[in-house]
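Supplementary Methods S3. Complex input for the coenzyme A-bound model.
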Amino acid sequence: MGKCFRTFVRVCQLFRIKRFVPVTAAAAISFRQFLETDIPFGMRLKSIAGWNQLPEDWKRFLAHDPDGCFLGVERSGEPVGTVTTTTYGKRFGWIGMVLVHPEHRRKGIGTCLLNHAMTHLEGLQVACIRLDATPLGKKLYDTLGFQDEYELERREGIGRSCTFEGVEPMRPDDLARVCAYDAPRFGAERARMLEFLYQQSAGTAKILRDETRALRGYLMARPGDHAWQIGPWMAEDAEAADQLLRSGLAALAGKPVFLDVLRQLTPAAEMLEAFSFRVQRPFIRMYRGRHDFTGEPEKTFAIAGVETG
Ligand SMILES: CC(C)(COP(=O)(O)OP(=O)(O)OC[C@H]1O[C@@H](n2cnc3c(N)ncnc32)[C@H](O)[C@@H]1OP(=O)(O)O)[C@@H](O)C(=O)NCCC(=O)NCCS
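Predicted complex, serialized as structure tokens:
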């Protein structure tokens, strides 16, 4: 039995089938639900990684999927890593906040966290698992069978006063219409997520309508540790997107701003070039499973954020 098992492990290692490799860490690490009291640890890890989240972002993950956020803990009781999952019905689940403390990296803990998150999502019968990978994370996801979907890039710059036309502030009673507009474009219904993001938007959320009062797009922003994050920024066409962007930048005049934009599928990057927004770093959107609900990426000028989708 022992010999059989060792052979199985060797074969998995040879073919890089990480899902079944009981790496040394697997025996030493356990998982428990990430709780609000773990947010300071999560904030420490994300600060080491130079990420932009605030405690409110962790709270959003916990409020949206309280059973889907996990902490990796060593046998000594020391927390060593985090992972969050966000479900959008059964269409897809999003994996985010994959963080391992630098002193514990390259020991298989990242793989264990990912496996745990995937098992959780599979248990919920989610058809497809998606995520936006950093170049460091991509190496890990490649070994777990994720496939590339499309490229994203983070743009950074400074908000500035500029002119725009027809854009209105988003009011609470606009939310239902915004959610209905968003669902086919995002690929799934995400009303609760948009409500949380709206609560974080501190008066910066905007909508644009046509002459029949139908939505032509919307934009939200929320504060972050290093910069305001604009997203989602969804629009029917480049002209609507431009007006919304201008209104968003004007609302954040003088403040540092990040946006995670689709590189090839929309003109978002060129629009941001005009406002001197530079590329900060690339991401790659990846998926695993049946990906039937791709939405309309050509209408997604900026995603909500790489940890959220
Ligand atoms: C990415 C991260 C979570 C990986 O955690 P980890 O515990 O080191 O991952 P593992 O030990 O399970 O590594 C799994 C595999 O990923 C790849 N990998 C991980 N880190 C790597 C690195 N720095 N360079 C090259 N390959 C790497 C390797 O294939 C590795 O397998 P191997 O060690 O057998 O070669 C960790 O580096 C981290 O927290 N980085 C900062 C935050 C981040 O970028 N998170 C990813 C968000 S998408």
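The chain is about 35% helix and 30% strand. Residues 146 and 288 are 5 Å apart (CA to CA).
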